[in-house]
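User: Could you go from structure to sequence for me? I need the amino acid at each position, not a summary. Structure tokens:
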């Protein structure tokens, strides 16, 4: 058990050093306090909440195939040449739903009013 902890500790230290060498920001959690380890120096400082939020931002996934989107009132027309699973994100970047569409024309009704991102394209439902 002790040797497993030592091995994990060594792997984490190596990973952190590699991230610092590649100028990748590293956030360390110790005793419930998040700290940011700087890239250029070995100093440790308190994490900036805005920068911490930017580091946690996830990239929105998108479908591998292109789609054509058009809003018609509260309905959304989606045309695709492929059957696929299409993720729909809210304005804040939260996954709202994953929509399974078929080849051809698909209609989506019932989305609440707001701004969405479908295949990294902004769509507004009025």
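Assistant: Here is the amino acid at each position, in order:
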């Amino acid at each position: 058990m002790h040797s497993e902890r030592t091995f994990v500790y060594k792997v984490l230290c190596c990973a952190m050093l590699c991230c610092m060498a590649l100028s990748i920001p590293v956030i360390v959690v110790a005793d419930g306090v998040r700290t940011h380890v700087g890239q250029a120096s070995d100093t440790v400082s308190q994490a900036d909440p805005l920068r911490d939020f930017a580091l946690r931002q996830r990239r929105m996934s998108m479908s591998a195939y292109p789609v054509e989107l058009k809003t018609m009132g509260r309905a959304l027309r989606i045309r695709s040449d492929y059957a696929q699973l299409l993720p729909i994100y809210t304005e804040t970047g939260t996954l709202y739903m994953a929509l399974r569409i078929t080849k051809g024309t698909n209609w989506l009704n019932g989305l609440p009013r707001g701004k969405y991102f479908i295949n990294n394209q902004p769509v507004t439902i009025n």
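One structural detail worth keeping in mind: The radius of gyration is 22 Å.
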